[in-house]
Fold:
Amino acid sequence: MTISQIMARMIDYANGNIHDIGHLTHVWTYAKTIGELEGLDQQTQFILETAAITHDIACPLCREKYGSADGKRQEQEGPALVRAFLADTGMTPEQIQRVAYLVGHHHTLHDIDGPDYQILIEADYIVNACEGGYDKKTVGAFIDKFMRTQSGRRIAKAVFQI
Structure:
């Protein structure tokens, strides 16, 4: 399955939730851009983009089950959902496992073990900061403390005019 097919499937999965659809497309756009600017290999880029598209797959379930989609619950519920979602895509078990790992850790800012994980954190933060109206001081502190890619830092600074 191609990235476009995974994206279309995830849009269907969102069941008309405009916020969720907008969020996943924005995170995917930033992740794709940062990954390409950072020169990721084709395999890592594919994993990154798939994880960006599916990173919030648990939000509908969490809102229904817990009354909110807080990050830790998303990380708890997401891996099983994403494994089922990707099972018939033609991805290898190793690819699916890596996406599930990223989905299960996309709010965890320590022990980042690869560029796909780092870029997913950066892309999701940029979008969350835009949606949440974070102030420049908060964004600047996050950039300084957690953003490791030159491209992610550059984009975040440009978006927030820092």
